User: Which sequence fits this backbone?
């Protein structure tokens, strides 16, 4: 008899890709930010036209379009790269501009331990 080969979700190392290579948490952040931008903008535009309730429709369409576009951008950024690559690139980008300090060692060249006198390696060598 053959055994069923179930995929156990508790054994996954990373979140699975849901839409265009993005995980559910990435899509949630994209949707939250785009709603935060499109809802006031849509209500403002619709209010200027005299139909405030139409602003919710503008915000909905704008949110969906933004999430689809951003998911495509993230798909290109993440292609054939390790997990968390774009997050590290963002931290390095912020570090280069002095906005946030990245906690990565970025120095190249010879390293020194800072000693001028080399002591014995073991207690026997004293």
Assistant:
């Amino acid at each position: 008899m053959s055994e069923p080969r179930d995929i156990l979700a508790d054994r996954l190392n990373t979140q699975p890709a849901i839409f265009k290579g993005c995980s559910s948490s990435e899509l949630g952040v994209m949707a939250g930010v785009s709603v935060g931008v499109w809802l006031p903008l849509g209500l403002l535009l619709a209010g200027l036209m005299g139909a405030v309730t139409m602003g919710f429709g503008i915000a909905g369409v704008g949110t969906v379009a933004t999430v689809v576009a951003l998911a495509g951008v993230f798909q290109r950024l993440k292609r054939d790269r390790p997990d968390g690559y774009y997050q590290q690139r963002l931290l390095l980008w912020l570090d280069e501009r002095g906005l946030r300090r990245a906690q990565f060692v970025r120095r190249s060249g010879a390293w020194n331990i800072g000693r001028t006198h080399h002591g014995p390696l073991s207690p026997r060598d004293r």
